[in-house]
Specification:
The protein is mostly helical. Among the domains are: about 80 residues, NADH-ubiquinone/plastoquinone oxidoreductase chain 6, subunit NuoJ (Four Helix Bundle (Hemerythrin (Met), subunit A), Up-down Bundle), CATH 1.20.120.1200; about 35 residues. It contains 8 helices and no strands.
């Protein structure tokens, strides 16, 4: 067994373990940290496939930005863990059914003839100026241009929907109206009041 295969199996086992811990651990902060470990392990697998750009994007975007945001939200919210555990048994049959369907679909895909190990080119056989980032961009904006634009439109719709769902208009909120502040008469800004002078007793 080669050293590259040992690294692959190591990252694969860590990835499977971290993914299993994400859905089984009860503390949401620990689940988010295990998800970070899963992302880092997946980035290691991308490096083995000579996709350095995808590995760096996975670490920078998901681990460095998205998961930090998740951790802030989880730790700022007052989550009642006892209340979450009460409804676990109600959704267990549906979750088990979905899990069985996913395993069956993965078994069908893996058993088909179209799925198999991809022969990666030898790094020494690639030309000097070869860039997998350029190849990825060329495929995204030529062969997969329409799916890329559809995914972008779906993400934009999801962002707008999240903003609309979480927007709450409170009547007791105090705010300033800049338009009303600007549209005033300059003479009303300062008013001279005449007062009688006080007399000394």
């Amino acid at each position: 067994m080669e050293f590259k295969q040992l690294i692959f199996y190591f990252f694969g086992m860590v990835l499977v373990f971290a993914a299993a811990m994400v859905i089984t651990v009860r503390n949401p902060v620990k689940a988010a940290l295990f998800l970070v470990l899963a992302f880092v392990s997946a980035a290691g697998l991308w490096l083995l496939l000579q996709a350095e750009f995808l590995a760096i994007v996975l670490v920078l975007v998901y681990v460095g930005a998205v998961m930090v945001l998740f951790l802030f939200v989880v730790m700022m919210l007052d989550i009642n863990l006892v209340r979450l555990r009460e409804g676990f048994g109600e959704y267990l049959p549906i979750g088990a059914l979905v899990a069985v369907l996913l395993v069956a679909e993965m078994a069908i895909i893996l058993s088909s003839d179209g799925f198999g190990p991809v022969q990666m080119p030898d790094p020494g056989s690639l030309p000097t100026g070869h860039s997998n980032t350029r190849e990825l961009g060329r495929l995204l904006y030529t062969a997969y241009a329409y799916p890329f634009e559809i995914a972008a439109a779906i993400l934009l719709t999801a962002i707008v929907a999240a903003i609309v769902l979480t927007l709450r208009h409170r009547k007791d909120t105090k705010y300033q109206n800049p338009a009303q502040q600007i549209n005033i008469n300059p003479r009303e800004r300062m008013r001279v009041v005449k007062m009688r002078s006080e007399k000394k007793i």
